[in-house]
Prior knowledge:
21 strands; 2 domains; Lipocalin; Beta-lactamase
Amino acid sequence: MLGERLISGLFGNRAGNAYDVLVKAYTDQGKFSGAVLVARGGEVLFRKAYGLANREHNAPNTPETPFRIGSMTKPFTAIAIMQLAEKGVLSEQDSLAKYVPDYPHGERITLHHLMTNTSGIPDYIMMPEYEPIKKQHISTTELIAVFRDKPMQFEPGTDFGYSNSGWVLLGYVLELVTGKPYEQVIQQQIFAPSGMTHSGYEWEQPLIKGRPTGYADTGRAMLNAEFIDETTMHGAGGLYATVDDLLAFDRELHNGKLLKAETLAQMTLPASKTSYGYGWELYQVHNRKVVAHSGGMPGYVSNLARFVDDDVTVIILSNLGSTAFSQMTETLAAIAFGEPYALPTAHAFIDLDLAVMADYLGDYNLTYFGRASTLKFTIENGKLMMDVKGLPKTVASAISQTQFYARSKGDVYLTFQRDDDGQVNTIDVNWSGNELMATRIK
């Protein structure tokens, strides 16, 4: 949580120091390791790296360090699709069946549905079938086979459900239409025109200068994060980049080199009943319009937030999976806009009796971004543990008898609620600033 003492963002020529003090505070509290860049109108206001790229070798992160960007890959995939739409090669209203004729229900699913997460196709990374293959180097068709025959969650276009599966299919469409591998399409259509010389797709085998190790903070120990092969993320999350390359991308997108202005405007309109466009998250911070996308995978977190009316960009890349990216983005922007903000403060934790924690054990259903997941709570070595599929198991540390704090792709606050009969059946969840409710399953 942010501390109560507000600090003026009006630092004048000391603003660079204000950014540094802020990010260092997050780093010192174990909430960040990586590189940060803030720019206005293409002018870099702040650019600095923190923490270690490799803890075993004590090698520091630098501003030139490349990081895996996870779901920040999605805007790149969507832009590549819309570039082809501008050329008349395809249309966002085309059905999936036009390109993948045998895909179930493909005649009812459009590229528009895939780019807005309104297709109804379930997310493969939540499926048990993904577990045995996520470390393997596989083909696009092998990855699609994991989810292609699963039941639809809803009729296309009627609801929102964040789905990596749709983005794999979009990457596959790019491959089919161009006759090139996904990574070559992105390199030729986006990386090269933007001057992104330190970004790419293949992560494990090539020699990549400055490549960091991803880490997971479980609350008990800092661990090497689980490895995920890029081919099992594909157009949904397979890319890596540097903060400098992402700023170059941002500028070329802003300047109309990658897309026509009207196309970009179309991509940043929210789909019906959503706050999501074509590969962009759409929201407001400090009463300003933001077009952004974050990313998270074991050991890595990213965020690129464009304050479009102010031409201010905040970029955060991290090799710590529990980085507080949402709070950092908001406070870095506050400095840029001269808004009040606060430094993060450390928590004071308390010890609880096992009998108190026993009331909280069990499984709870949580829906976040239209995607259902399960929070599992157990006790291990006297600690309450939270386990969520796709994320490292982490300690839930007690702030009070009912409130707990955990690190898991950002700060997570859990407040267990008792019903009138005294039973705990719900949890108020604040996950990276998003207010949610989890309901007991068992």
